[in-house]
């Protein structure tokens, strides 16, 4: 876990920096510098583009990571990388033609409830395209075991640009329309920079003699489209469907609540940048013992961090909401449900990496498609009845069902599960510390209340972890940081 922890800590710092900037943008700048309607529009554009991204990427990011380490010969690697660059075009070119031909029809569909969305179809397409190739070049760097710069570009770069653009809107240097056009340019520029960096690590030598197992690779990529799309749909379809059924301002209110809950996934996102290629390498080597160890260690480490974050968020949520405009304060139920689902995600460690790099990926992908459909159906049922809370319930149920199924599937096929006795110890600590402090009401300013509660919880939790030696990786990291 040495290389995992080293790059994971760097990625965690970068990702938290990005989320810190994102917090300023979401909680303060968007909510005060744009109207609710335009903030909701930004949420719809980005969520819809994110849903398109796996399709446009043609599964290449996952395929690149899975197969790259299996090629030894340089010519085979060059042929494989050439194939990875070209595959997305098989989807992107037809999508471009369909968008051009069906512009009016697509616009009418997206704007049947909120007419403001209709004029932004090409914005969605271009952002989705940029996201797709960004992930391709990011995967290109990850297989070289270099994930930090890509993580910076993914988590920090775009958010800094948005901060600048929102300030320009506030000072009336640019209009909201120019802001939206510039937002598209930011995502395109991010992809170009990522491409240049990836090429400094491994410059492509175009070789149209593709690997002998090309048909297998393309088949895998096609199946991965289903799995990646299913995962994205489960996470992003709620905002898209809120736009289809209720006023677009609600997307803005929901986005604030979702962002708060999404802070929980930062450690997972950071660690997965490096555990994914490591998992692929262990599976290519058929190292079952190493795989099981990585599975359990990643699960425990992520549960410790994500569980602590969940407790901190729930304890401080009422104080945090006093800092944002009144219209955005009704999301406690959304934050609780989505946050709980994110903790469950983290608890599964590198479960996804194991499944997508195994020979059983087809079953899991079809299952993912079924659950994505279930998510859509749940949203169709619950959003009209319960509004934003209904969207949160639909996402929560879908994630819990999907994760539980994957948990049992890995147990059955690989005879491995992520839980250890230490998992139960961490759960007990979180409950023992969190429940009493939840009922503690402090009379100070919201920021002081948040700081005091957070310091107390972190000191108690980290102190207990160290006292009872619950996680060797976490304790080792703490001893290195504080020179114990």
UniProtKB/TrEMBL annotation:
It holds the Pfam family Polysacc_synt. The keyword Oxidoreductase does not apply. Its main location: membrane. InterPro entries: Poly_Biosynth_Transport, Polysacc_synth. GO terms for cellular component: plasma membrane. This is O-antigen/teichoic acid export membrane protein. The chain crosses the membrane at residues 12-32, 38-60, 80-100, 120-140, 156-173, 179-197, 217-235, 247-266, 300-321, 327-344, 364-384, 390-409, 421-440, 446-466. It comes from the Bacteria. It is found in: Cell membrane. The keyword Transmembrane helix applies. Keywords: Cell membrane, Membrane, Transmembrane, Transmembrane helix. It is a multi-pass membrane protein. PANTHER family: O-ANTIGEN TRANSPORTER-RELATED, PST FAMILY PREDICTED COLANIC ACID TRANSPORTER.
